[in-house]
């Protein structure tokens, strides 16, 4: 059984659909409950293998409530995908303290709290897979996504290592995936639809990344066979960052 946050649209919806398609029961979680319901209904109108949950990841009590509900209805959670994030491309020197706190609360705070809450339950069960969505911005400082977003994603990568070390002996792996620019509406909106082709030319491979492929990476890291991979960050950035 898999939980995917920020799954009401964009990459989260693609990940939820892929996990459902390969046999996972999926909890589609999003702050926009209606968007989550639309995705879940598209996967399984009967609600037997896909259900929607409206939830703000900055609310730890709500995360604990979600876990309790899932344990009662589905008996356990084996996979957690922390995808929920806030992107706001404000010029660096114009970012207010309030905006910084808000972005960090969602991107880092939500991921951290979910790793704590679900990680503890997985450790008690002796098995679990947690996959955190990082970003190229968290590795190279970002360009168009905002300094607070880049900073929060760098912190997510550090948190991934911390939780991986803590939970490894309990059979729980914690990894990250760091995509570069993907062919998603949010990227096209930030870049500008008329500039997409020109922007793609700045990427070494000459194209935007595939959201479906990111979902496949997530599924691989979330599989039982990925037992020896933990604390890792898998890059998929078209060659924009090579290490």
TrEMBL record:
Under the heading Gene3D superfamilies, the entry gives: NAD(P)-binding Rossmann-like Domain (3.40.50.720)
Which keywords has UniProt assigned to this entry?
Oxidoreductase
One matching Pfam family is adh_short_C2
- Where does the chain cross the membrane? none
Q: Which ranges form a coiled coil?
A: none
> Which first-to-last residue range defines the signal peptide?
none
Q: Recorded GO terms, molecular function?
A: oxidoreductase activity
**Looking at the keywords, is Oxidoreductase present?**
yes
Q: Which family does it belong to?
A: Belongs to the short-chain dehydrogenases/reductases (SDR) family.
Which PANTHER family does the record match to this protein? 3-OXOACYL-(ACYL-CARRIER-PROTEIN) REDUCTASE (PTHR42879), 3-OXOACYL-[ACYL-CARRIER-PROTEIN] REDUCTASE FABG (PTHR42879:SF2)
State what protein this is by name: 3-oxoacyl-ACP reductase
Organism (species): Nocardioides luteus
Q: What phylogenetic lineage does the species belong to?
A: Bacteria, Bacillati, Actinomycetota, Actinomycetes, Propionibacteriales
């Amino acid at each position: 059984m898999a939980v995917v946050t920020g799954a009401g649209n964009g990459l989260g919806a693609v990940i939820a659909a892929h996990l459902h398609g390969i046999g996972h029961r999926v909890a589609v979680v999003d702050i926009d409950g209606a968007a989550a319901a639309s995705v879940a209904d598209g996967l399984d109108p009967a609600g037997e293998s896909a259900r929607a949950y409206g939830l703000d990841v900055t609310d730890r009590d709500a995360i604990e409530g979600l876990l309790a509900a899932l344990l009662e209805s589905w008996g356990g959670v084996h996979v957690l995908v922390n995808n929920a994030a806030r992107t706001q491309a404000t010029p660096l020197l114009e970012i207010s303290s309030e905006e910084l706190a808000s972005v960090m609360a969602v991107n880092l705070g939500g991921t951290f709290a979910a790793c704590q809450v679900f990680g503890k339950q997985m450790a008690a069960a002796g098995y679990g897979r947690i996959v955190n969505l990082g970003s190229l911005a968290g590795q190279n400082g970002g360009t168009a996504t905002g300094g607070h977003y880049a900073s929060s994603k760098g912190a997510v990568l550090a948190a991934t290592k911390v939780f991986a070390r803590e939970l490894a002996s309990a059979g729980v792996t914690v990894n990250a995936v760091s995509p570069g620019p993907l062919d998603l509406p949010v990227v096209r909106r930030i870049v500008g639809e008329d500039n997409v082709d020109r922007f793609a030319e700045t990427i070494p491979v000459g194209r935007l990344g595939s959201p479906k492929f990111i979902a496949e990476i997530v599924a691989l890291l979330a599989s039982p066979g990925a037992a020896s991979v933990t604390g890792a960050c898998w890059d998929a950035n078209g060659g924009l960052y090579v290490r």
